[in-house]
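Hey, I'm writing a tutorial for new members on how sequence and structure tokens pair up, and I'd like a real worked example in the thread rather than a made-up one. If someone can provide the structure for the chain below, I'll link this post from the tutorial.
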Amino acid sequence: MTDTSPPHTHVVNNGKRELTLDELAVMQPGLDRLMAEIGPRMHRLYFAGSAGNWRLAEYYFRSVVKQLNLCAFSRPKYAVAINAYLVGECEPMRTAIKAADADSFESAYATMVARANAYHDEFAKPYLHWVCPKNPPDDIDFTAGLT
């Protein structure tokens, strides 16, 4: 006996239109969009730690790690490298923040940036290299909560 029923398609509504799950999947960000969100978080992490605002540095650090985990999930091709980065480069940063150790923080940040740039080279993207801005963004007070 042959099944002649139409294929089942899940449909969701985003408030503007109905979308199939396949259409919704196409709208999910690729690694380029996900990584574009990491840069500003990394910069804020740096300036928070440089200001000695360890709670804020921890907040941005967790945000960077969360975003990197999403990148690894989203792009399995890069999962091994990203997971290695989370262990090898991010853990020293976590330790420096918990210890409120400014020297270790500076070293860990420099290592994170250098290793990220090396991964870009490894994955044939040598034109993508991070640098930390010389000046902090002016949309956040990096000393907030310090008293």
